[in-house]
Amino acid sequence: MQHLIFQELQVTDSHQRQKPGPGKPLTAQRELYFRLMKQGLNNSEACRRVGIHRSSGQHWRHGRRVRNKGREYYYRPITPRPPVSARFLSEDERVRIADLHRLGLSTRVIARKLGRDPSTISRELRRNADPVTGSYRPFTAHRRALGRRPRPRPGKLAADLELRTMVQQLLDRWWSPEQICHELRRRFLGQPERHLVPETIYQAIYVQGRGGLRRELHRALRTGRAMRRPRRASTALPDGKIPGMVMISERPAEVADRAVPGHWEGDLIVGASHGSVIGTLVERSTRYVMLLHLPDGGNATAVRDALITTLGTLPTQLRRSLTWDQGKELARHREFSLATDIQVYFCDPHSPWQRGSNENTYWCTVLVPGGFDGSRFGGLLGDSENTCRIWPSVDLSTAAPRARALTGSDLIEAC
Predict the structure, then answer these.
(1) What is the Cα–Cα distance from 266 to 278, expressed in whole angstroms?
(2) Distances from the Cα of 340 to the Cα of 96, 121, 226, angstroms
(3) What is the pLDDT of residues 106-131, one digit of tens each?
(4) Sequential DSSP letters for 223-286
(5) For the residues of 279-338, what is the DSSP string, one character each?
(6) What 3-state class would DSSP assign to 343?
């Protein structure tokens, strides 16, 4: 005979139900998750063992973006905190202090049970108690203590008016943060307190209260972004891998030290609605710039023909190698190599810094912005190409004189 078991359900009013809101802190789960990831487990397995959803682990490691009423908010990745010195009270110790203090024990008895000095307990109860009610809440007290622990100091740009003015003027002239840092080292020889790193300038623009630079200066940067985009490492190959790729790891060592001219880096700039495309070529040693107008679009055949036509006019000593990303526009790289005797090397996926010369010589993205309309070019392409050659690179010299000095060739156009 089958027995039926009925469970009595309790009906509650709406005001008795638990209100929605943030759950309890997942500090222990986060620490366990990062330990498992450090041991080599993948995200799904680590999340399964911890008891959280897969998306929670991804948000902890990579951060997340949330759109609300037309505004975008970015939550930074959660990184494991370094171990805190034992001289600071931990969260568990503050919980014990609250329990013992609620029992009416004196500060000396609490200090003896925790192995702390009585003045430490007395100062903790005095400084971190609720300023209104006077009660001691351990988690709130811990957050207050963490907020007082940093010892912030004014940044170099915020404290130095002359330095800040110079950086703003150079940004208004479309200098990159890296170029500005090199220029500051030249102007302020023997004054290391006025030397900066590029990250200082980026933070002064993007982080409010960190340097005092005008917020609208982000428009003078290469990307023009109002918010910084986190770099997420990825080793996954794109769909439809290009056949016969020779990776950048097999590129000769002479390319890296920039001592020998003739090694080029290339990429495409795509216009509005993918209606117009420009190819960019930058020589690694001289930073000499050549632009490719692609009226038939950025397909593999058009890019192949434009590269053969452009690089085929150069002297032999300036035709050694070409480095490109894994875009499908270079799917006919073998035909290009046979026609020009130039070996093509491909970067790793999602690794634009492996074409640093091309990325950092993107003056053409300022002169020819990403949303350009190719039907209104006129003489813009030639003007942009010449301007790129006379604009200073990171070492503050120009491209055309360097190219002529290294090659001795009259084919290098004077600017």
Answers:
(1) 11
(2) 76, 78, 42
(3) 999 999 999 999 999 999 999 998 88
(4) S--SS--------PPPSSPPTT--BGGGS-HHHHTT-SS-EEEEEEEE-GGG--EEEEEEETTT
(5) EEEEETTT--EEEEEETT-S-HHHHHHHHHHHHTTS-GGG-SEEEE-S-GGGTTHHHHHH
(6) strand
Mean pLDDT of 223-249: 66
Query: Which residue is associated with the tokens 């050694």?
Result: 320
- What is the architecture of the domain spanning 248-407? 2-Layer Sandwich (3.30)
User: Which residues contact residue 104 at a Cβ distance below 8 angstroms, ignoring those fewer than 6 apart?
Assistant: none
Residue 410, pLDDT score: 46
**Cβ neighbours of residue 83 closer than 8 Å, sequence gap 6 or more:** none
For the chain, the 3-state helix, strand and coil shares in percent, each to the nearest 5, are: 45, 10, 45
Lowest mean pLDDT across 18-32, 144-158, 377-391, 393-407: 377-391
Instruction: Compute how many other C-beta atoms are within 10 angstroms of the C-beta atom of residue 394.
Output: 17
Tokens of 365: 């993205």
Integer Cα distance of 197 and 180 in angstroms? 9
Token pair 């632009």 is found at: 291
pLDDT at 24 exceeding the cut of 90: no
Q: Tell me what the mean pLDDT of segment 70-98 comes to.
A: 78
Tokens of 9: 């359900």
Residue 86 reports pLDDT greater than 70? yes
> What is the domain partition of the chain in residue ranges?
27-75, 91-146, 156-220, 248-407
Q: What φ, ψ does residue 227 adopt, rounded to 5°?
A: -130, 145
Q: Beta strand pairing status for 64-68 and 71-75?
A: antiparallel
With a CB cutoff of 8 Å and minimum separation 6, the contacts of 342 are 264, 311, 319, 320, 321, 322, 336
What is the pLDDT, as a whole number, of residue 259? 85
Structure tokens that stand for 307 in this block: 């590269």
Structure tokens at 200: 């200082």
How far is residue 347 CA from its own chain's centroid? 18
pLDDT above 60: residue 105: yes
pTM beyond 0.90: the answer is no
Given a contact cutoff of 8 angstroms between Cβ atoms, the answer to whether 342 and 321 are in contact is yes
Give residue 25's pLDDT. Answer: 62
H helix count then E strand count, the chain: 18, 7
**In terms of pLDDT, which residue wins out, 316 or 412?**
316
